[in-house]
Amino acid sequence: MILAACAALVIVGLGLFAFRTFGEQGAIVPPMRAAYRMPGQAWRRGTLRFTGDRLTLKGPGGLSAGPWIRGNLDLGVASGVGEDDGRAIGRQGLIAVPVSYGTSAFELALDEQHYTALRAWVEAVPPGWNTYVA
Q1: In the prediction, which pLDDT does 17 show?
Q2: Burial 50-87 (b: 16+ CB within 10 A, else e)
Q3: E strands along the chain, which residues?
Q4: Is residue 21 within a helix (H) or strand (E), and if so which, with residue range?
Q5: Which of 25, 85, 89, 103 could make an SS bond with 35 (beta carbons 3.0 to 4.6 A apart)?
Q6: In 3D, which of 28, 22, 29 has the Cα closest to residue 49?
Q7: CB atoms within 10 A of CB 118
Q8: 17/19 Cα distance (integer angstroms)
Q9: Is 1 helix (H, G, I), strand (E, B) or coil?
Q10: Tens digit of pLDDT for each residue in 19-73?
């Protein structure tokens, strides 16, 4: 009986360890493909990932932009990515959304379902963030 309880605790502990380790690397919750650019720069492809309160973007070679805190992100009006930009990114049918974070600004290009998920995530800020904003 005691041996079974110890074995169960070890298995649960290993499961939690594996989830924490591999989940952070994207093995359990895969990041979304996206493209981004800073004002006046060319598009760069990367992967976008949002967690409980942060948005991170990893570019080629693992270079990162962010992390940005969810409550401080402001998504602008989305529009379709133009044909020339689509060729530069290497994918068509993406949605471009301007993002401001404090004094900095950048633009993201995402698939429609990823844009919808990002918009819902940003708008679902927990209570306490910008509580006086109407």
Answers
A1: 63
A2: beeeebbbbeeeeeebbebebeebebeebeebeeebbe
A3: 32-37, 44-50, 54-58, 64-69, 73-75, 79-80, 95-101, 104-110
A4: helix 2-24
A5: 89
A6: 29
A7: 23
A8: 6
A9: coil
A10: 555 555 544 456 788 888 888 888 888 888 887 778 888 877 766 777 888 888 8
The span from the CA of 66 to the CA of 118, in Å, is 15
For the record, the structure tokens of 19 come out as: 């989830």
pLDDT of 127 reads 60
Distance CA 11, CA 43 (A): 45
- In this structure, how many other beta carbons lie within 10 angstroms of the beta carbon of residue 107? 18
Is pLDDT of 94 > 80? yes
Beta bridge partners of 64: 58
| Residues 6+ away with beta carbon under 8 Å from 12 | none
* 3 state SS of 80: strand
Q: What is the pLDDT of residues 111-126, one digit of tens each?
A: 998 999 888 888 886 6
**What span, in angstroms and rounded, lies between the C-alpha atoms of 77 and 91?**
21
* Structure-token pair, residue 58: 């990893």
